[in-house]
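User: Could you walk me through two proteins back to back? I'd like the raw sequence and the structure tokens for each, with a short line separating them so I can tell where one ends and the next begins.

Assistant: Of course. Protein one, sequence then structure:
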Amino acid sequence: MTRAPTTGVSADAAELAATAILQVFRAERAAVLATLIRYAGDFQLAEDAVQDAFASALLAWQRGGVPDNPAAWIMVAARRRAIDLLRRDRAVADRAARLATLLRLDEQEHPAMDEPMTIADDRLRLIFTCCHPALGMQARVALTLRTLGGLTTAEIARAFLVPEPTMGKRIVRAKRKIADAHIPYRVPGGAELPGRLAGVLRVIYLIFNEGYAATAGDRLIRGELCAEAIRLGRLVCEQIPGDAEAWGLLALMLLHDARGAARVDGRGSYVALQDQDRSLWDMARIRAGVGALERSARSGSPGPYQIQAAITALHMQSADGDTVTWAQIAELYAVLGTLSPSPVVTLNHAAAAGFAYGPGAGLRLLEPLLGDPALGRYQPLHAAHAELLRHAGDLAAARTAYEQAIALSANSVERAELRRRMESLIAGGIHASEPGKGQV
């Protein structure tokens, strides 16, 4: 977003303005956008107006200095830009009513941001709008990252390894569907809220999941996605503090993210959980994660995210990789499997059971998955199968399973680790593998 300073503007002024804009964009863009959507009643118009406001701020702040309240400046500029856009577009439905609302706000003596609680409510409304079940899951994820995360279309496209034009069309279609379907800009209430909130948490979880263990590419971790998911998770917990699963998801993300610096070495190679340098773990983040887990436990009966967080906490609270309480972890995976059955839960249950009760127990749990043709190209299944076969001493079969997993892996870091494990079969090396990436 930085540009060369305008003629007559000092380099220091230009640098100060650019730095301030980046900070406000990151911290306040979602709040400004969410509030302007409420005022203007139009998703795309509000986004265009906010984008134009940030562009105009660069020149104005270079020349006149950074205002005392940058977020309020952006809000006023965006609101006035929305007025200009509405005046030009005579095809907009309810144009007169929308203009009247914006003009009335613009005539106030102190036309700044709303009260903090109202702003937070607007952001929550925006989350529920972006995560509406009328949109496909990929569209929900992309739109949430674009509007609430402020990531560019190019950044989202790179994260999910699709061409930028493809991602751009996906986001445009999602916005159009919101308008055409008249999707309400509100937080659902009553009996509708639990189901809709579960969908919101699912989107946040998927964003974090892709950041924590990227499906493809040359990086294992996409930190920008992890950070966005955690930020959104915090917002939901702040606004709906009584939901146990919201706190459970936040705990899960914080605990996993705390190990980020130790999950790859200086060369970018994968480091197994039991081999990680624990001095690199973020202890403040671990404490925050444990606190969120305790809050979740007090808020209601255990749900899938809370149980996953508890499993992660057990891994991290062990003295080292050799003292993990695998039987307890296996028991928690069994409970998770009854609440939210999926292939990922089953294969992680199998891995834990293999360490707790022997590889035969784990292989028996995997048998139904291995016999399902629909899972033939499910890479994590073959990776888990290979690990259990290695522990069982069936090295030839383990090699075959590793080869299948390697062929199906699109992430270069993951692929290199699988190849290293396969090549270590001759030496008989055995490594306990942490629970795999996946969806509940």
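----
Protein two, same layout:
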Amino acid sequence: MTDLSAPVVQVGVDYRVVPPATLGSLCRRADDHARWPSPASARGSVVLRTCHRLELYLEGVDDAVAMSAFREWLGDAWPSSGVNVAARSGAEAGRHLLRVSAGLESAVVGEDQVLSQARSAYREACRRHAPGPALHRLFHAAFRTGKRVRSETALGSGCRSLAGGVVGLLREELADLTERTVLVLGAGEMGSLAARRLRARGVGRLLVCNRSWPRAGALAREVAAEPLPWSWRFRGLTEADAVVCATGAQSPVLEAGRLAEAVRWRRRSLLVVDLAVPANVESPPGDEHRVRVIGMDELVRRLEAHADRRLGAVVVAEGIVEEELERWMDWFRGRGTDGSSRAEIWSRAGSA
């Protein structure tokens, strides 16, 4: 396939090209930045922010403009060295987004959460009237791809999300969950998924803690858990065998000193899995505190070790990606099913 004549360009970073700390600082900068990263020459833009990636999609600019816009947007958070970022354009940019939505680029191959995150990114861009015609078509192709992969292949069988991966990890580390107590910090999307998976796996006792007491109570009722006020989170550590931290704070919610103090008199070790980017848990120094913190980098390594189990489904999913990519490219070349040329569609979009 050849690149398109007026390309969509993608530039970004993910868990494969930058360490978690760097990715966390970049995501924090993006979350805090009110300005939308869209140069004046661009026909459209979409920002995709997930648990472990931050990407910018621009329409109607070249690679150099896209790279410059991305770096300027992130400003001081951009590291001076050690980041190898390459822009993708045309077919390669389209293929990448379709693979992301299919779960082929995720830490957990086949995860289903990334598709809803892509939908949220697109809705936010639409709210800002940001996408151009090609990006509208590309994201809808991505949604179609993700849906097809999940319905037509076995890629989504078994562990399909980071939350599911965490539950599998806890089962490996703690053996029988029916005799264990697990504290879930955070009642958002990831925390809710983790709590539901833990209940489905028969966890003995489940504690839910969230900054919003009504939200903690609602999730606790749903999964038959015990809600804890946010100020009691360290008290919950004295009773838990494991903690799943799924908060979205910009700074640690379990600081090293207070974490060490909370478990000082425990007779058993405490396992803490931190799903946040940037990290929301600080590891106490040394081994004397009997706390083990597993962050995103270690979690990703462990999950990738199991990825080859579904290689056959990956091949089928990649075929779906190529089919949907070709459909998008056909429209882009001016052979869309509605009979409109690319120039006509762009003209209508510009006058809307």
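The chain is about 45% helix and 15% strand.

Let me know if you want the two compared in more detail.
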